[in-house]
């Protein structure tokens, strides 16, 4: 197994290859693909990690998630996490128990209960954006939309306007601490995250007490999961700390996914008026079939809106890689990987370069053409206006019978952003409802256009991040 580059530089020994990765994830991975093939080692800080780039290999491994491998997180995330959460990461059986507890909050019944709230949140933001005197910055407004989706839909935490900045600051501090060295010293990023978590735990516990005292419908994933657990366990209670920790986990995961995915879709739509026009045509058909109301059946029928969301996630995923620890000795890509090894499953590279539906020659063909490999590394160093002009084709996600041109665009074997197999992300269904409702309301009542489309830029480092500049600024106008 190739070990990559070696150095006795003390800083590199501490940070590993991470600084080079930060300069550009795709160039970093494709250069090592050229040198070592689709399975190779690199250094993530002081840990040795095995990168896996082949789409089919990644998907196959995910089908056995919990059997041949378990979840793994960086030390900072483990240190700031809860005891139960860390156990669920390391122990597949505990992880299944956690999924069973949370699953009712993401069921079809749960989606019906929160659908009205999803529509109200999306409608409120669109109205605010269109009423603004100046164009809006999606890099800022997308995070605010994600904050409202996650706080109100996942934990029913309706934060007053005067408290929003404080709660968002707590979440931001926790996000930063997760990837920081776990140094619990005054003033460190990690200590600030620990302090922010303690404050947020107190906030969530108050939500729990209010929910227990309320006779309302409990329309949030958090409350629905809690009610189901109590009913199934004969009223047996989880500890308040355990419940609050689960609420924070939902908030962190939901803010990340909703913010990245929905914002990417809006930013790309602002570059593609022809896609926007087709969304409007679909909404006319949806209204004719289901009426003007946004029922779950109406949302389900929005196949083109879903295709737009999936294409945005393919090109700018809120999670472009997954970390796992092998539980057994494995052969991956013809190489021996011993039990206990850390895996870096690059779903971003796998989906965009190794899916033979998209690229018939796959990675093997790419490595045989050095000029093409170099061109790909350069073109995909970040996702920008030029790349989107070539790549943003939502119709690739449609069946040939569902739309014009679908047969002229290479399809995809499937989206890996939310994982695959027994541990696919529980929140995927809720996110799709959020995104499709947002696009439906946008297409029905508004137009969106980029102010400086050629400046649009997403940086890709494990997760895609919309760069806040002129390219992230859009005008939203009432039709």
Structural features:
13 strands; three-stranded antiparallel beta sheet; alpha+beta; five-stranded mixed beta sheet
Based on secondary structure, the structural category is alpha+beta
Instruction: Describe the strand arrangement of the main beta sheet, using strand numbers.
Output: 1-2-8-5-3
Strand content: 5-15%
What is the terminal-to-terminal distance?
59 Å
Tertiary shape: globular
What do the pLDDT scores average to? 85
Question: What's the number of extended β-strand segments?
Answer: 13
Radius of gyration: 22 Å
Helix content: 55-70%
How many helix segments? 21
Which runs of at least 5 residues are low in confidence (pLDDT < 50)? none
Q: What does the main sheet amount to? A: 5 strands, mixed
Could you characterize what this model shows?
The protein is globular, with a radius of gyration of 22 Å. The chain is of the alpha+beta class and 479 residues long. The model has no long low-confidence stretch (mean pLDDT 85). The protein is built from 21 helices and 13 strands.
């Amino acid at each position: 197994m190739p070990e990559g580059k070696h150095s006795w530089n003390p800083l590199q020994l501490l940070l590993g290859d991470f600084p080079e990765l930060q300069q550009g994830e795709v160039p970093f991975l494709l250069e090592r693909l050229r040198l070592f093939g689709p399975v190779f080692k690199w250094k993530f800080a002081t840990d040795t990690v095995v990168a896996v780039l082949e789409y089919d290999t990644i998907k196959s491994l995910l089908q056995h998630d919990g059997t041949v491998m378990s979840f793994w997180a960086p030390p900072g995330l483990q240190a700031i996490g809860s005891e139960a959460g860390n156990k669920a990461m390391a122990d597949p059986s505990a992880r299944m128990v956690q999924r069973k507890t949370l699953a009712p909050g993401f069921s079809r019944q749960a989606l019906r209960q929160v659908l009205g709230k999803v529509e109200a949140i999306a409608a409120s933001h669109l109205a605010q954006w269109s009423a603004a005197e100046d164009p809006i910055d999606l890099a800022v407004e997308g995070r605010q939309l994600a904050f409202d989706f996650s706080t109100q839909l996942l934990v029913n935490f309706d934060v007053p306007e005067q408290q929003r900045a404080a709660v968002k600051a707590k979440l931001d501090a926790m996000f930063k601490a997760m990837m920081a060295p776990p140094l619990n010293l005054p003033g460190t990023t990690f200590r600030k995250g620990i302090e922010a978590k303690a404050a947020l735990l107190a906030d969530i516990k108050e939500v729990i007490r209010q929910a227990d005292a309320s006779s309302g419908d409990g329309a949030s994933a958090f409350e629905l999961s809690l009610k189901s657990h109590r009913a199934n366990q004969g009223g047996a209670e989880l500890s308040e700390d355990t419940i609050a920790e689960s609420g924070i986990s939902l908030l962190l995961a939901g803010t990340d996914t909703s913010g990245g995915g929905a914002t990417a879709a809006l930013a790309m739509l602002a570059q593609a008026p022809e896609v926007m026009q087709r969304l409007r045509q679909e909404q006319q058909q949806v209204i004719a079939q289901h009426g003007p109301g946004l029922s779950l059946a109406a949302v389900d029928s929005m196949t083109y809106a879903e295709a737009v969301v999936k294409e945005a996630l393919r090109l700018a995923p809120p999670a472009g890689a997954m970390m796992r620890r092998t539980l057994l000795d494995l052969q991956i890509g013809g190489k021996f990987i011993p039990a206990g090894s850390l895996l870096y499953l690059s779903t971003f590279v796998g989906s965009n370069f190794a899916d033979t539906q998209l690229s018939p020659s796959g990675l093997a063909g790419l490595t045989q053409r050095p000029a093409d490999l170099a061109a790909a590394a350069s073109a995909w160093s970040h996702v920008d206006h030029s790349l989107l002009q070539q790549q943003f084709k939502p119709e690739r996600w449609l069946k040939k019978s569902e739309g014009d041109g679908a047969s002229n665009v290479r399809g995809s074997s499937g989206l890996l952003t939310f994982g695959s197999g027994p541990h696919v992300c529980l929140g995927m269904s809720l996110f799709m409802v959020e995104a499709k409702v947002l696009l439906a309301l946008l297409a029905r009542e508004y137009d969106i256009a980029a102010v400086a489309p050629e400046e649009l830029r997403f940086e890709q480092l494990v997760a895609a991040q919309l760069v806040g500049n002129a390219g992230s600024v859009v005008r939203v106008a009432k039709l």
